[in-house]
């Protein structure tokens, strides 16, 4: 169940970040409200994930997966370009999350 909460935290934060890009520095009401709700729910769900997942590991997964998802959204929907170093960095983030998930004894599977 803690990974369900972590997944919900990541999705909420990604929604909040995506809406933040559309809020035009909080001048558009609906995207601004979605941003606040997304971040609020993200931290709420993250707090439940922290009951069972070590904080550093949970935060690394949350940050890493969030970065990848936000980058994909930026690329697909906002037509943001990615150069090779950006793609290489994102690949390293994915590899880091996979290494923790597959090999770390710190994480309760």
Automatic annotation (TrEMBL):
BP GO annotations: glycine betaine transport; xenobiotic detoxification by transmembrane export across the plasma membrane
Per UniProt, subcellular location reads as: Cell membrane
Membrane protein topology class: Multi-pass membrane protein
| A GO molecular function held by the record | amino-acid betaine transmembrane transporter activity
Gene3D superfamilies, per the entry: 1.10.3730.20
Q: Single GO cellular component annotation?
A: plasma membrane
Q: Which UniProt keywords apply?
A: Cell membrane, Membrane, Transmembrane, Transmembrane helix, Transport
Q: What is its main location?
A: membrane
Signal sequence span is none
Any stretches that span the bilayer, and where are they? Answer: 31-50, 57-78, 84-103
Please report which protein family the annotation says this sequence is part of.
Answer: Belongs to the drug/metabolite transporter (DMT) superfamily. Small multidrug resistance (SMR) (TC 2.A.7.1) family.
What is the protein's name according to its record? Answer: Multidrug efflux SMR transporter
Species annotation: Hymenobacter setariae
Q: What is the lineage of its organism?
A: Bacteria, Pseudomonadati, Bacteroidota, Cytophagia, Cytophagales
């Amino acid at each position: 169940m803690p990974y369900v909460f972590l997944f919900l935290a990541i999705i909420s934060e990604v929604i909040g970040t995506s809406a933040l890009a559309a809020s035009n520095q909080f001048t558009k009401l609906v995207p601004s409200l979605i941003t606040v709700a997304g971040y609020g729910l993200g931290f709420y769900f993250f707090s439940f994930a922290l009951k069972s997942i070590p904080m550093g590991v949970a935060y690394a997964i949350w940050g890493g997966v969030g970065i990848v998802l936000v980058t994909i959204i930026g690329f697909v929907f906002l037509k943001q370009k990615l150069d090779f170093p950006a793609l290489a960095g994102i690949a390293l983030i994915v590899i880091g999350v996979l290494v923790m998930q597959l090999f770390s004894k710190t994480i309760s599977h």
